[in-house]
Design goal:
The structure is a single chain. This protein is an alpha/beta fold. It has a single domain, classed as 7-stranded beta/alpha barrel. The protein has eight helices and ten strands. Helix 4 crosses helix 5. The radius of gyration is 20 Å and the shape is globular. The chain starts with a helix and ends with a helix. Bound molecules: zinc ion. The site of zinc ion (ZN) has 5 residues, from strand 1.
Length: 273
């Protein structure tokens, strides 16, 4: 299906080129520098809003554009803000199928978004920051193995819950075989780390302004990482929501229509030379 549409696109482009060349017109060269935009959608889990996630995947499929989901492998059954022992719920078969098929279609990039996304403290919300090295490593190893078994593919990105992590996390990530961390701009880093750091840089409400700002710096190949959640949609949370799905669709269409902007996943950006 995708191959057919690609060939059709290629033929149309070839036809246009020949037509314009015959007519003596010069094609405008494609821009060499881009603003790269990453959409990072956190909190995919056994308890998240499947219908919305399906719509998001369908939307990105329409544009054949990649999106990165931060996936919680074993969501805690009760309140993520309560550190008391809780049951965990692995992804159910329908959520596994949705993830796997979008991954196989080349639309979805998957990052490990914690183990259960349950805080270890009531004073500050964090699943990793403040936890000892061995327990962080055990969580990372288990979560990574679970997602890799589901996808039958390597998972090399971690998105720490609440964007919180510490030096033990960075060490454990490398031991567990991760290559990339996506948290937020104020996250710590160290020269000893070989990880790629790709923090979130803006919210759903800021992304157009971010792209415009980044355009002033095209020579440096800027990357905009937009972080969003299901509660950003008014259809899910009337009070916290910042956008309707229709407005979100228009945003993706706008980005797709910008000749100097390209959509990439976290993995694609971290694999750039
Ligand atoms: Zn989260």
């Amino acid at each position: 299906m995708r191959t057919i549409s690609f060939h059709r696109t290629a033929l149309i482009i070839l036809f246009l080129f020949v037509t314009l060349t015959i007519a003596g017109c010069a094609l405008r060269p494609a821009p060499q520098n881009y603003v790269t935009v990453v959409f990072r959608f956190d909190d995919y889990s056994s308890t998240s809003a499947t219908a919305l996630e399906r719509r998001i995947i369908d939307l990105f499929s329409r544009y054949q554009a990649p999106i990165t989901f931060g996936v919680i492998p074993f969501a805690c059954a009760d309140d993520i803000h309560d550190p008391a022992p809780q049951e965990t719920i692995p992804l159910d078969p329908s959520k596994i199928d949705l993830l796997k098929s979008a991954y196989d279609d080349g639309i979805l990039d998957v990052g490990l978004h914690g183990y259960s996304h349950q805080t270890i403290s009531k004073d500050y919300y964090s699943e990793f920051e403040g936890l000892d090295y061995d327990r962080q490593l055990a969580k990372l190893n288990k979560g990574k193995a679970y997602l890799e078994e589901i996808l039958d593919a390597p998972v090399s990105t971690v998105v720490p819950p609440w964007n919180r992590y510490d030096l033990n996390t960075l060490k454990a990530l490398e031991t567990a075989g991760f290559t990339t961390i996506s948290a937020e701009l104020k996250g710590i880093s160290t020269e000893k780390s070989n990880l790629d750091f790709l923090p979130a840089t803006c919210s759903i409400a800021q992304v157009r302004d971010c792209v415009d700002t980044a355009r002033a710096d095209l020579d440096r190949q800027p990357v905009v990482v937009m972080l969003f959640h299901e509660y950003d949609f008014k259809e899910i949370d009337e009070r916290r929501g910042r956008t309707t799905f229709q407005e979100f669709s228009a945003l993706v269409a706008w980005i797709d229509n910008q000749p100097d902007v390209r959509l990439r996943s976290i993995r694609q950006v971290s694999e750039l030379p």
